[in-house]
Amino acid sequence: MTLNLNGLDRRRFLRGTGVALALPLLESVAMAGPRASEPPQDPKRLACFYFPDGVPMPLVEDPAYKDWSWFPHGTGDDFKFTKALSPLEPLRDEISVLSGFSHPKSRSVHGHSNADQFLTAADTGSNGPYKNSISLDQIYAEHIGNQTRYSSLVMSTDGGTGTPRGTHTLSFNRNGRAIPAENRPKRIFDMLFVKSDEDAARRLAISQSALDDLLADARSLRKTLSSNDQSSLDEYLDSVREAEIKVEKAKHWLKTPLPTVNADHLNLNLTPDEPRQYLQTMFEMIFLAFKTDSTRVATYQIGRENGVGISDHLARAVGFSLAHQLSHETKNPGGWKNFAIYCQFLNEEFGRFVAKLKATDEPAGRGSMLDNTLLLFGSASSAFHLSRNYPLILAGGKNMGFKHGKYLNNAGSNPQGGAWNGGREPWQQEISHEDRPLSNLFVTMLQQLDVPAESVADSDGKVTELI
After folding, report:
1. Among 30, 121, 444, 467, who pairs with 103 as Cys (CB 3.0-4.6 Å)?
2. Taxonomically, which superkingdom (predicted)?
3. Are 230 and 368 found together in one domain?
4. Number of domains in the chain
């Protein structure tokens, strides 16, 4: 099999013997193109992340409320992070925390069936025929996807599509059909960055770095670049090398068979750091995909509902066996704290990703990647899988007009309204506020991403407080 390197798409590549690696956006390369007379434009990107099972929401009178409640204390720009959100304190001016949003058609859906409609707002229901609709990311992908090699990057920890009301993917096409998610970092890496012939594939199979055969072309290209672009290229190659190392480490965790309930000790070969390494690697795949402009749209479902699958073992990163189980043990001594520690871990890794985008400059000094990237991080459950008052964080997008550093507290003085009290099922409890449609946020996001969307699903306005 012969690879025609000259037949690759318009993007610039480093080229070796049978191998090509996508380059990041470089000012010098852009100015050498056919549209050199036009001022270069920074791409606008969107990434959405989902975690299941809700968040810790102890009642106000509970001793755990002060430190371990997920939602901050206060409102507007006068708020204080609890320990659950403390990893995001250094990024306070780059994010907004939101409460009091949910999808009206899904407020009665059981909390084990929520991920399907997080980005669609569809009435997927708990019973009866299943029907979904297009997801937020795919609306944007239809608008922008033809400008990149991949219209979108769809990822999850568990992979595939899962089942209706037990999805393994956040992304749904125009017909409401689930788009399979990829969960193997090596496959994502090779798909995004490496085009190879059979010999190159064999070299990669024996762990030879994809960069080894590209360094000569890199040195040649470097001579033609500005000093700023030389630094960008060096930084990018270091990131790719680091990602390769992370991929190799993360493969071990995914290949390890899941233990049965009664054979937990058989998982001794998993170190506590491996789930954390895996999560970091998946975030790194999105960073590199955005850095190379291979795509401008990404979703990552960190875990699925029901406590089934690979993702339930991510809690091992902080010393617990099963993530889902933590959400059911909040009535036990220390239960709220344990659940919050796991959420703290997820927030820390999300914060690490946000900080990396913030630290990475766009070409020609037009702000950071974070300024041109809009990030939605959240869940479609709150306390004990209650399908109301979604815990949400919006980050980035300052060059799109978003203003951060605030807690948009739509839940009023009691964001814990409807919190689990141990006596009634969540849907039987009184709710102290009326949620706003989350689709209002979707409309706001799409319009700032230059999509002419007047409405999405059941939206009835915009979230003007954020722009």
Report:
1. 121
2. Bacteria
3. no
4. 2
Q: How far is the CA of 364 from the CAs of 28, 43, 226, 416, in angstroms? A: 10, 13, 11, 46
Same domain, residue pair 155 and 77: yes
- Domain assignment of residue 279, given as a range: 42-194+268-466
Same domain, 100 and 125: yes
Mean pLDDT to the nearest integer, 282-295 = 88
Instruction: Kindly state whether residues 358 and 393 are assigned to the same domain.
Output: yes
Q: 370 near 395, Cβ under 8 Å?
A: yes
- What type of residue is 405? G
- Beta-carbon count within 10 A of 127 CB: 9
CA angle 99, 100, 103 (to 5 degrees): 120
Judge contact between 40 and 363, C-beta under 8 A.
Answer: yes
Angle between helix axes 227-255 and 185-193 (nearest 10 degrees) is: 150
Structure tokens at 460: 């009835």
- pLDDT confidence of residue 429: 43
37 in a structural domain: no
**Six token digits for residue 442:** 């979707």
Whether 25 maps to a domain, the answer reads no
Asked whether residue 295 is assigned to any structural domain, the reply reads yes
Residue 166 corresponds to which amino acid? G
Counting Cβ atoms within 10 Å, is residue 263 exposed (0-12), middle (13-18) or buried (19+)? exposed
Rounded CA-CA distance 321/438 in Å is: 33
Q: Two tokens at 212? A: 């080894």
C-alpha angle 287-217-285 in degrees, rounded to nearest 5: 15
Q: Could you give the C-alpha distances from 301 to 151, 155, 258, 384, in angstroms and in order?
A: 18, 6, 19, 19
According to DSSP, residue 361 is labeled B
Torsion of CA 246, 248, 253, 257, to 10 degrees: 160
The pLDDT assigned to 243 comes to: 67
Are residue 62 and residue 164 in the same domain, yes or no? yes
Select from 414, 333, 342 the least CA-distant residue to 379: 342
Which is higher by pLDDT, 130 or 4? 130
pTM, entire model: 0.79
Q: Is residue 382 part of a domain?
A: yes
User: Which neighbouring-strand residues pair with 46?
Assistant: 297, 374
Identify whether the C-beta of residue 96 lies closer than 8 Å to the C-beta of residue 376.
no
The pLDDT score that the predictor gives to residue 3 is 42
Amino acid found at 169 = T
In terms of pLDDT, which residue wins out, 460 or 267? Answer: 460
Q: What is the pLDDT of residues 48-81, one digit of tens each?
A: 999 999 999 999 999 999 999 999 999 999 999 9
Q: Which residue has the higher pLDDT, 214 or 100?
A: 100
For the domain that residue 304 is a member of, what is the CATH number?
3.40.720
CA–CA distances in Å: residue 263 to residues 253, 260, 266, 321: 17, 5, 6, 12
